[in-house]
Amino acid sequence: MKVFTLVVELGRKSGDGLPDRATGAGLVCYAPGQDEAEAVRETVAILKQADMAPLDVTGYGTLEERLEEGHEIDPQERALMERALAENSVIIAQMTPYFSDEAAQQDPRH
User: Residue 38 contacts by C-beta under 8 Å, 6 or more apart in sequence?
Assistant: First the structure.
């Protein structure tokens, strides 16, 4: 089993937990799988169970593949990847809500 880095684009869905004025969000996830397709399927299934609306998933490969491409991977990111593998679970490392206007993006209440 390997851990894949995925970026998931979310739309809106009732009960998704995103800020009220958000139009969607981007998630950085670490997901284990035999291959990237399995990691994507599992991630999408888990997000749907959490009442989120995944629209698109972009895969960035395994730790080894990312290092070969010259990505800098800090110790915290490595630790999250190791945790995803050890727990056989999808780890959401970062969530960035999207807003339709610039004023909402700069609102410190989000």
Answer: none
Q: What is the dihedral of CA 25, 29, 32, 38, to 10 degrees?
A: 30
Q: Is 1 helix (H, G, I), strand (E, B) or coil?
A: coil
Closest CA to 47 of 4, 79, 18: 18
pLDDT tens digits along 23-77: 999 999 999 999 999 999 999 999 999 999 999 999 999 999 999 999 999 999 9
Provide the 3-class DSSP secondary structure of residue 78.
Answer: helix
Does the global pTM surpass 0.70? yes
